[in-house]
User: Fold Peptidyl-tRNA hydrolase from Acetobacterium bakii.
Amino acid sequence: MHLIVGLGNIGSKYDGTRHNIGFEVIDTITRNKDITVKKKEQNGFTGVYREFGQKIMLAKPTTFMNNSGLCVAGLVNFYEVPLENLLIIYDDIDLEPGDVRIRQRGSGGTHNGMRSIIQSLGSQEFSRIRIGIGRPKECSDLVNFVLGRFAKSDGPLMETAIIEAAKGVDIFVKDGVDLAMNRINVRKKVEKQIFLENKEVKKLEN
Assistant:
């Protein structure tokens, strides 16, 4: 079984915030696969579908971001999910808005949800999809920034990023993390450059 976890905070007041981009990717996948993520288990909501000859579980932790590891470790241990079949989707302030990067392993950086997962699993050896949200102008305003909403100008980039991340999940499940990195990391960089160039052209035309 593959376990795909999107990180975020439960509650309507957090809908659409930068910190909930992982939840938005899961929501996009559920619409694409016509399933629901509503089963309550292991401190989260889950839903299952089958594709590419695989059983895939989608999950949203209900612990709030800083304790995401309780849900992830609970599901990994209960269903005996190999860490190579685990994929975490989350926001990353170290990437520009709209950037999408897949990594095979690594530290949690400044992300408290990822730190919690690594601590709970006792390992960094699992894949992740990082979605760039950029950094606040004032470093001291980090909490308000990640719990804030995207600027309208970032909307198209973020919508594209969510779609790309969902594609990355399909490639990860079907073909593995190496091919997912090769396809998504390179393609997203090219697509963003084209988007920015077109945006600049429109400014000049106006």
In short: The domain at 2-205 is CATH 3.40.50.1470 (Rossmann fold).
